[in-house]
Amino acid sequence: MNPNGVAVPVPDPMGLPGPVWLMTALLLVTFTVHVIFMNAAFGGGLWTLWNYLRGRNSDHPYSRRLSLELSKALPVLLAYTISFGVAALLFVQVLYGRFLYASSILIGAVWIMVIPLVIMAYYGYYYVSHTADKGKLRTGLVMGGSLLCLMTIAFIFSNNMTLMLRPDRWLSMYRAHPNGWNLNVGEPSLVPRYLHMLVGAVAVFSAILAHIGMRKMKLDFEYGRWIVRRAATVFAAAVGVQFLLGMWLLLSQERRVAMMFITDPLAGSVLGLALLGVVASVVLMLVGAAAERPSSLVHAGFGMTLVTVGLMVTLRHLLRLAYLRPYLQQEVANVHPQTSVIILFLALFVGGLITVSYMLWKVQSAKSNSDTQSRRVAHV
Amino acid sequence: MNYPIWQLGYPGGMLIAVIAILHVFVSHFAIGGGAYLVLTESRAYRKNDEGMLEYVKRHSQFFALLTLVFGAVTGVGIWFTIGLVSPEGTSSLIHTYVWAWASEWVFFVVEITAAILYAKTWATLDRRAHLTLGWIYFVSAWMSLFIINGIITYQLTPGTWLKTHAFWDGFFNPTFWPSLFTRTAMSLLLAGVFGYLTLSKGSSATRDRLVRWSSAWLLTGAILLPACLAWYFTAIPGFSRPYFGGLIAMKHGVRGGVTFASILILIALLSLLKPRAMRVPLMTVAVICALGLMGSGEYMREFVRKPWVINGVIYANDVRAEAIPALEREGAAAHARFVAVDAKADDYGRQLFVLECSACHSVDGYRGMRKRVSGWDADLAKEMLAHIDKMRAPMPQFGGNEADRVALGKYLASLNPPENHGAVTDANRMEIGEHVFKVHCGSCHTVNGNFRPLRGAFADASPDQVENLFPLLDSMSPNMPHFSASEDDTHALGAYISQEANKKVTAETPLERPVGGGIR
Predict the structure, then answer these.
(1) What is the rounded CA–CA span in Å between residue B65 and residue B63?
(2) What stretches in chain B show pLDDT beneath 50?
(3) What percent of chain B has pLDDT over 70?
(4) Of A365, B148, B398, B470, whose CB count within 10 A is highest?
């Protein structure tokens, strides 16, 4: 049908089973949570590895302690990265599936590697969480292996997420390698986007860690402050690099898309707010951490970072819309909401939140009781 | 048509099968195993059995490692592979059932949270709260099954959805309940099998009790399974029920499933009597048999849906049934977007093969076409394509026009060198006749076999009378292709059919073996 032109699959004849705004909101919310967990799982992994290797030297007991504590959390963080990724994958398929399926098939041989890589990274994290107290080099090597797996997965995702926006490249790419051995390396935004995600993970996890450090100060002030100050420093440095990468990423977009930030008030506002959020979070974090007794400004910096992640995810969505705009109108026209099922889902969603909160509350209150009891025993 | 085809060199369905079987094996264990954990824990408290409690703590760690990582990630793997291999089908499913999947995702999040906390809080939670976590885990895991079961069974038996397109009509479809019970029974069986794996190494009374306890789970599942499967069998579509009686692959599937289940039952009975026989070799056999049983079941479940991905909606080659008339009118190139887009291309026939056949067939490997079309010339191949959905094997309608059939027919004929069996003599006439029968008729008929036997039509017919019918076949029935063969081959075929149809057949006569892998 299109011997030489642009090939784009036609929309699914079933139409959309719910309002676009609702599915977009669910996509953005679940993807934001996914990104935060992903940042924690990957950024936390880097923090763990660095402190683990440093902590093997007995001069750095805090590093050893931190790596041990972080290593216990890594498999759980990866578990939630995957679960929220599944939800985002669900909604991105229903909204933009015809683009995602096509680009995934084009890089099929590479795309499918994500699955074994996740399994390897995940088991590596479990291994580290069970062996980190022994201080062996092998644990560090496994940790490094897991991180390499995650970095490769990120690179594959960057390829697919950029390729799904460029139907104009699909036919020539497919004809060159119909076996799925393709990458979108011709994409100018690929490298800055990839690096932006990786460095962003370091920045976001550092903000999370500073927040954790503040809580640790209540039990062990010196250790907590050590965490807060290190995390705030790394956060500021990572955000500095992120700023440059962000500029590179912005300039690497197609001109018509990049112009959106000037001509479209919504896109311009979100970009402006995100930049403000970045600056505010760095200032809050540094000022809060620099004090003799780090102040609650660190918490504010952490909160601002999470808000900024949400804004960045929105920016990413606006970029996607801008790239796909020429092909998208038909989906919007064909909406058949499954109202009863949507209501059921929302009820289950609320029920799920309550159940998870209940379980966490039960576990947390039991833990507090047991901590109190053990302190009493120690005191006696 | 709509999407590029991932040209792996072998059918992508194989990749789905491998990942799916491994996933369902672990994910069914994740359901039954949840009930097993919490009931074993309750039992340990009730009997004040410390040994059993130690065991269930250990088992919960193993359970979390296997189900949270391998089970969950291979589940994502199914998403990846079905999107790569069957994007049209996946898109249709997601547009029909995204809210079901979203609801399932809620249970999934509850499930993993409960599993993580259950495995980590043995020391900190009181017994009642810990058991509550276990029950929350099990209920959410089973609810995940409940929802996914609705989607999978819809693919086989969409029921009234085909008319109404209403969510609930497709979800609670004719195979929903029997499939749900079958899967629940299977998950109980797997809970027992996996229960063996974390037993301690030594010998003790506690260990013996745990072996018997796990065997009881295995047997409970194994006893429920045949009844559930029989119920399931009554609910599957009419077109696929004969597959069990005739398709070689299905016969192997049934035989394999029965064998694996029988060995598992024997292992469970043996370990009930002699629990100390349950050591690594027996555990290994049990796991292999359980995987074999699950694999056989999944293979047959996939097969009974052939030639569809979604029964009545999308064929196994990702072509929509409703698109067939337009494809027949305008040709595949008018609708294809990535492969076979230029009907004038030199390799258009090969591209059509990629587009319409490669989801299930390779050239030389799995379901290889070279051997299947051995002896076909381009004319015969073209005629076969026009009647492909009438073949013995479950095949979709061909999505293309006459020119497409010619192009694909030429490609299929080119896979083998032209036949040259030499001159027909009195000595080799029957042998050549049998060969010509296999090539021209055997994909849809037997003479004395079970599938569309010709015996009734040609009983008492002489070779000439048989031969005289050949030119009239396509005018006698639109389901019959036009016949064309060399004069020698035609004489040999007439002689062969006449001889076979007039042969005396007794109960001892071996059943005629049909060509290829179709219904016998």
Answers:
(1) 6
(2) 517-520
(3) 98
(4) B398
Residues B115 and B25 in one domain: yes
Within-domain flag for A12: no
Predicted TM-score (pTM) above 0.95 = no
Is B80 part of the contact surface with chain A (CB cutoff 8 Å)? yes
Provide the shortest C-alpha distance from residue A30 to chain B (in Å). Answer: 11
Nearest-by-Cβ selection for A105 from B6, B69, B140? B6
Q: Tell me what pLDDT residue B520 has.
A: 37
Phi, psi of B518 (to 5 degrees): -85, -165
Domain that holds residue A75: 18-187
Angle A212-B66-B202 (CA atoms, 0-180°, nearest 5)? Answer: 110
Stronger pLDDT, A379 or A78, i.e. the higher one: A78
Whether the CB of B4 is below 8 Å from some CB of chain A: the reply is yes
Residues on chain A touching B96 (C-beta within 8 angstroms): 14, 17
Task: Let me know whether A63 and A132 are in one domain.
Answer: yes
pLDDT of residue A126: 97
Considering only CA atoms, give the Rg of chain A: 23
Q: Mutate which of A354, A359, A371, A373 to disrupt the B interface (most B C-beta within 10 Å)?
A: A359
Show which of residues 261-300 on chain A sit within 8 Å of chain B, judged by CB atoms: none
Residue B13: per-residue pLDDT: 80
Which stretch of DSSP H or E encloses residue B314?
Answer: strand B314-315
Which residue from A17, A363, A367 is facing B99, i.e. has the nearest CB?
A17
Range of the domain at B496: 429-501
Bond from prior residue into A337 cis (ω within 30 degrees of 0): no
DSSP assignment string, B97-121: HHHHHHHHHHHHHHHHHHHHHHHH-
Written as six digits, the tokens of B70 are 């391998």
| CB-based contact, A16 to chain B, within 8 Å | yes
Beta carbons of B455 and B447 less than 8 angstroms apart: yes
Q: DSSP for A304-349?
A: HHHHHHHHHHHHHHHHHHHHHGGG-HHHHH-B---HHHHHHHHHHH
Q: Where are the alpha helices (DSSP H) in A132-189?
A: 137-163, 170-176
How close B6 gets to chain A, by Cα (Å)?
6
Measured in angstroms, the CA of A98 and the nearest CA of chain B are apart by 8
Mapping DSSP to helix (H, G, I), strand (E, B) and coil, where does residue A16 land?
A: strand
Distance from CA of B283 to the nearest CA of A (A): 23
Cross-chain Cβ contact A83/B108 below 8 Å: yes
B515 occurs within a structural domain: no
Q: Rounded to an integer, what distance in angstroms lies between the CA atom of residue B188 and that of residue A108?
A: 36
Residue A375 in any domain: the answer is: no
Question: Which of residues B414, B438, B463 is at a domain's end?
Answer: B414
Query: What CATH number is given to the structural domain containing B394?
Result: 1.10.760
Query: How many A×B Cβ pairs under 8 Å?
Result: 216
What part of B 332-351 touches A (C-beta under 8 Å)?
Answer: 333-339, 341-342
- From chain A residues 148-177, the ones with a CB under 8 A of any chain B CB are 170-171, 174
Residue at B421 is within a domain: no
Q: Do B90 and A108 touch (CB under 8 A)?
A: no
Is the pLDDT score of A4 beyond 60?
no
Q: Is residue A167 part of a domain?
A: yes
> How far B86 CA lies from chain A's nearest CA (Å)?
9
Q: How many independent structural domains does chain B possess?
A: 3
A52-80 pLDDT, tens digit each? 999 987 789 999 999 999 999 999 999 99
Mean pLDDT score across all residues of chain B: 93
DSSP string across B232-248: HHHHS-TTTHHHHHHBH
Question: Looking at the 3D structure of chain A, how many domains does it have?
Answer: 2
B127–chain A Cβ distance below 8 A for any pair? no
Same domain for B185 and B49: yes
Shared domain for B49 and B63, answered yes or no, is yes
pLDDT, residue B514, reads 58
